[in-house]
Amino acid sequence: MILGEKEMNNHGKPKVTLADHKEERSFSESSIQTLKAQLNETFQADDAEVLALNEDKESVAKHTTYKFSQKEPAQFYTMSNDDFLTLLDDLQKSPSQKQNNALNVALLVGTSHIPSSLPELVLHADAICIADIDPRIFNQVAFMIKCIKEANSRDDFMKLYLTNDNPYVPKKRGLGAAGKKTS
Amino acid sequence: MSQKSEAWEQRAKKHLEQTKIKLGDKYFLASEERFAICKKAASEIPFMYVRMNMFDHTQCQKLNEILKKNSAQLSILNITNIADYSTEPVLLAKSVSDLIKDSKPIMILSFMSGPFYLLTSFQTTQAEDFLEKIRHIKDKQLKPESKNNNEEENAKAIIAAIKQEILTIVWPIRKGKLFGSTITTEDKKTKVVPDSVFLQWKEILAAEKDQKSYANALKQIKTFGETAAKKKKKWRNKNITQSFYDAFTNEEAFNKRFKKS
After folding, report:
1. B117: alpha, beta or left, given left = phi > 0 and alpha = psi -120 to 50?
2. Which of B1, B22, B37, B48 to mutate to test the interface with A (most CBs of A within 10 A)?
3. Under an 8 A CB cutoff, do A106 and B5 touch?
4. Among the four A70, A179, B47, B112, which has the fewest Cβ within 10 Å?
């Protein structure tokens, strides 16, 4: 399907496409900022980069066998642990769960193939909220998003991505300025 | 300015390549056109970051309260495979229940199942279906075969179990229907791609070809079985062959290779 093209879904309703989603927004920029500020205040996202992970074992241990990797920086996530993108693509044929008078949030754990899922995600949500027990993932996702926004081509992206600013670059050997949240 | 190491750069590129294998033309670097579409979407949608323990229901309640207070609701919830890390799935279901109390999102859950912990995803808009799936997440996991004194017999049994799983569960889902949506032949090129788990099967599926590869597969499966039993560690193969890829993208090739009996 060409993005922006009107098409009927299986339920006889027009499918929401990338071109449509802007007009459907019924929230202001300030409402986004208010929500963001309240989430930051409660969930300390702004402190993620300075969080001493090893001092927070008690909170992490609650009802989970998850263990933080002791490697610094965190290892590459070679795969997102799901078929999220495939499912989202499939859901283009289903009615969206967006509500007209609400700020519709996609809450995604971990990486969830976020860079590649964005075109499908904007059809289903007004804002993306990335949740994880390990805040280092925020640095990684945010850096990727920053590179995508700044690059004008794939080559541009690779140039920006393969720099010392990449949070994946090991800090200890002085190879880069890692750990800075970028957006 | 310090130089980043070449080894690091190679790892970074490899990481991107592995994602590309899985996502095909949906991968954000698959083409200039796809990149432009992803860039446009990235520029338009705001991002927020929430450092939380989803196993803790008080944190889920707090998040729900904040969303509600700001006239926000969840339209999508992807919890990936966190249920696999749950010590008490019933409590995780309670947490998720608190989180979605005032929303009606599309919900996605992934989980490991089968003797080789293959990744499967489940998606629904029905809260109770979703919570029930989480509550019984451990029931769905088939543990590795119990150790048999005869190592070769044990390995053969595992090979049979894997083949059966591919034939009866994974392949039909990947081949024809995906959650009620028909996948076209064209779609197969992108959707029926081998992911990291598929890579693990190469040796097993090729095992009956000749004595040597069969012996190698037995050896690897024996090692894997022992490791998996202890650590649930995934067994990975490094390479992928064209014939293996063909078998998963072409029905005729698949039948020729795997549906002999």
Report:
1. left
2. B48
3. no
4. A70
pTM to 2 decimal places: 0.67
Q: Are A86 and B63 in contact (CB under 8 A)?
A: no
Q: Tens digit of pLDDT for each residue in A159-178?
A: 998 887 887 776 554 333 33
Question: Rounded to 5, what percent of chain B is helix, strand, coil?
Answer: 60, 10, 30
Identify the closest residue of chain A to B25 by CA–CA distance: A116
Enumerate the domain spans of chain A. 29-161
From B12, B43, B85, residue closest to A162, measured CB to CB:
B12
* Cβ–Cβ below 8 Å for B178 and A90: yes
Q: How many CB atoms lie within 10 A of CB B215?
A: 13
- Cβ burial of A150 (10 Å; 0-12, 13-18, 19+) is middle
* Beta pairing partners, B177: B182
What count of CB pairs under 8 Å joins A to B?
Answer: 287
User: Which of A10, A17, A47, A105 should be substituted to probe chain B, the one whose Cβ sees the most B Cβ atoms within 10 Å?
Assistant: A105
Residue A152 has what pLDDT?
A: 96
Query: What average pLDDT does the structure give for chain A?
Result: 69
Rounded CA Rg of chain A: 18
Residue B195 to residue A79, Cβ atoms within 8 A: yes
- Chain segment A107-131, per-residue pLDDT in tens: 998 877 888 889 989 988 999 999 9
Q: CA dist B197 to B18, B106, B112, B202, B253, Å?
A: 12, 25, 10, 10, 20
Question: In this predicted model, which residue has the larger pLDDT, A62 or B250?
Answer: A62
